[in-house]
Amino acid sequence: EELFLCLNDYETVSCSPVCCQSLKLLHITDNNLQDWTEIRKLGIMFPSLDTLILANNNLTTIEESEDSLARLFPNLRSINLHKS
């Protein structure tokens, strides 16, 4: 499954108590996500995510070690941070 959440001016990610195991691609471009802690929530809510497109957001830093990223996004194969 794919989810497109583009052009919504999101600044935060609201956690859902229910995980979406079937989501493989999340396209959340052209928003206003700035803090990496918001992106971490996506790994919890979408554990099967293999493609994450975060282009054109305002992320300042990725505050995560490579090992921690692998645990947080265990199936992630592609991430797009263009202009983020």
Give the helices and strands, then pairings:
Layout: E1 2-4, E2 25-27, H1 36-45, E3 51-53, H2 66-72, E4 78-80
Parallel strand pairs: 1-2, 2-3, 3-4
Question: What does this protein look like?
Answer:
- The chain is of the alpha/beta class and 84 residues long.
- The chain has one domain (2-80): Leucine-rich repeat, LRR (right-handed beta-alpha superhelix).
- Helix content is 20%, strand content 14%.
- It has two helices and four strands.
- A four-stranded parallel sheet has the order 1-2-3-4, with no helix packed on it.
- α1 (36-45) links the parallel β2 and β3 (51-53).
- The radius of gyration is 12 Å and the shape is globular.
- It starts with a strand and ends with a strand.
- The mean pLDDT is 94.
Largest sheet: 4 strands, parallel
What is the CATH architecture descriptor?
Alpha-Beta Horseshoe
Mean pLDDT reading: 94
- The number of helical elements comes to 2
Distance between the amino and carboxyl termini: 24 Å
CATH topology: Leucine-rich repeat, LRR (right-handed beta-alpha superhelix)
Query: Which shape, going by the Cα principal axes?
Result: globular
Strands in their spatial order, largest beta sheet: 1-2-3-4
Helix fraction by DSSP (H/I, runs of at least 4):
10-25%
* SSE order: EEHEHE
The CATH superfamily is known as Ribonuclease Inhibitor
CATH class placement: Alpha Beta
Give the number of DSSP strands.
4
Unreliable residue runs: none
Integer-rounded radius of gyration: 12 Å
Structural class from helices and strands?
alpha/beta
Q: Return the domain count.
A: 1
**Share of residues in strands:** 5-15%
